[in-house]
Automatic annotation (TrEMBL):
Protein name: Short-chain dehydrogenase
Pfam families: adh_short_C2 (PF13561)
Family designation: Belongs to the short-chain dehydrogenases/reductases (SDR) family.
This protein's UniProt keywords: Oxidoreductase
Entries under PANTHER family matching the protein: NADPH-DEPENDENT ALDEHYDE REDUCTASE-LIKE PROTEIN, CHLOROPLASTIC-RELATED, RE15974P
Annotated InterPro entries: NAD(P)-bd_dom_sf, SDR_fam
Organism: Brachybacterium phenoliresistens
Amino acid sequence: MHPDTTLPRAALLTGVGRRRGIGAAIARGLAEDGFDLALSYSPAYDERVNGETSDVEQLAEELRGLGRRVELLPGDLADPAVPARLTARAREALGPLGALVMAHCESVDSSILDTTVESFDAHYAVNVRATWLLLKAFAEQVEEGTDTPGGSAIALTSDHTVHNLPYGATKGALDRLVLAGTHELAGRGVRTNVINPGPIDTGWMDDAIREAGAAQTPGGRLGGTETVADLVRFLVSAQGAWIRGQLLYSNGGYATPAL
């Protein structure tokens, strides 16, 4: 069996295209904790959905300034060949991976009556299939039954479904497959968890949304990208190794409005 020792100090992070995003905050936190980083991102997605040009190069320079090795890995996770290729390239550049953090997503608003088959399939490909293939490739770097350190795999999820049907539905599927990994991959020393951070403003909120969200939180404020990063940092640490197979709500007590 695999003892809960310190993980290899290299991590693959997905969905790290913008410096103000959750993925970037996680990258900063892990860099401060001594992890070298492979950062996966999709410039086309940032332009199509966020209306922004990726600034991950600037993030990489910031992290290198902390003394970390950083490998940039652009790729479209809708392509089923990409997850294994990203994992292989990350290992070639940085060595064995101790952590996999999946912050990528396809998220385009639509509802039951106007979601297209093409949009639903695109969400499934990125949010579910790519997550499975990334987790599979991460686990396969460890030979089952050996003392080679495994690692910590974490995915981000959401409860949002109403008028965001394909996103919410596929996030539900993501939860199930990632949590199954704690049991199926135990022989490889892999532990898995899912984080639901609640509403985090990464540029998509206006003042009205921020005010309404804060009012639904006991502390009267919304969490930030750093609150997500803090939990990830704990889960990949030796101190967090006993937490596994959990869907963790790290949302400050945010109460979802009644439908």
